[in-house]
């Protein structure tokens, strides 16, 4: 679950960087510092790929553990 929470935090930072927050007085910075937004976009893509790989490995591991019990004849 740490992976999903870190991905959520990265999305939140990206939203604040792109749109700002009028209530807190934070201005959008993507127009002034485009490299920041490029790095955030790269981090989001890497996080999403990592999340997909994690889910794939989790499903594969569960299948490896449960499969011998399903093939056993009663």
From TrEMBL:
Keywords per UniProt: Cell membrane, Membrane, Transmembrane, Transmembrane helix
Record's bilayer topology term: Multi-pass membrane protein
| GO CC annotation | plasma membrane
| Boundaries of every Casparian strip membrane protein domain copy | 1-53
The primary location reported for this protein is membrane
TM regions (residue ranges): 43-66
What is its subcellular localisation? Cell membrane
Pfam families annotated for this entry?
A: CASP_dom
Q: Provide the family line.
A: Belongs to the Casparian strip membrane proteins (CASP) family.
Subunit comment: Homodimer and heterodimers.
- Name this polypeptide is given: CASP-like protein
């Amino acid at each position: 679950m740490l992976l999903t929470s870190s991905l959520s935090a990265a999305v939140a930072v990206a939203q604040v960087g792109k749109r700002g927050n009028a209530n807190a007085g934070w201005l959008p910075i993507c127009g002034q510092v485009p490299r920041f937004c490029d790095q955030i976009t790269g981090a989001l893509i890497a996080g999403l790929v990592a999340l997909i790989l994690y889910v794939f490995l989790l499903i594969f591991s569960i299948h490896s553990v449960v499969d011998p019990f399903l093939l056993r004849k009663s």
